[in-house]
Give the backbone structure.
Amino acid sequence: MHNCQSNGRPDKEYQNWRWKPAQCDLPRFDAKRFLELMRGKTLAFIGDSVARNQMESLLCILWQVEVPEKRGNQNMERYYFRSTSTMIVRIWSTWLVHQTSEPFDFAPAGVDKIFLDSPDERLMEHIPTFDVIILSSGHWFTKQSVYILNNEIVGGQRWWPDKTKEMKINNTEAFGISVETIMTAMVQHSNYSGVTILRSYSPDHYEGGAWNTGGSCTGKEKPLLDSELVENVFTNLMHEKQLTGIYKGIRKQTNKSKVILMDTTKVFSYRHDGHPGPYRNPDPNKIVKRGPDGKPPPQDCLHWCMPGPVDVWNEMVLEIIRREFESRLKGPS
């Protein structure tokens, strides 16, 4: 879905723009070096479809030097690189906290109930087996859901049956609480001593509407200039709540794990050209132009083309891993 060139995208410049960090250079991804640094270790992507997008980017790069063995299932995919006994894992957890569609209090069955103060138990049991964890969440907080805190319904998104009562928590506040919950669980897990990388909220670039109301990113072929950048209030607020949640969580640390914030939100706000747009669909007869009524074709302005900007996230991950593990490879001096 994210191979935009195979799906008919006509322009290619979006693949070649590179981010230049201030006062340093970010090296190209070295697949062999990555596998060597991760020898005998497991890296896990945990979260939503943007986590899957990043995992697929990493796999595509590593595939150029070695084809992994695929194991597991849709809920927990595993890719094993035999040459270095390296495992890449993906666990699907859209909110990173406990979720159920069962009825709760006055919320009926069928609507997602999000327990903001309880980590997702499906992933917590696997935490001790991972050496590096990359967390990704946030975008599902725009979907219909009920927020539960201290065993009480405190708010909802696109759901609130009694309009005469004010919600205690909205979706951005709920996101911040969920981040604090998962970070606290990570830094207090008695059997976890790995490296947790929390990649910050990934910006989308829908114009003229949202993902479900005709928003579009068709025809964006170059990154935005500073003068063209329009601040996205929702993205900024989600980013702010996420940072607050992280800092509140890590202040409660009791184990020896390490937490690293990989803040990509601002720099990727410039990359409105990096999304699939209408080129998410492999159908050669798909509509890619606006209709006579001016409405755009179906768009994906949230995920990222591959190859494309998302590859930079894994270059950042490699730098983090290099700094964490390279000295261990050298041994005592």
The chain has one domain: 13-93+127-139+176-330. Residues 13-93+127-139+176-330 form a domain with the Rossmann fold fold (CATH 3.40.50). The CA atoms of residues 31 and 62 lie 5 Å apart. The first helix runs from residue 31 to 37.
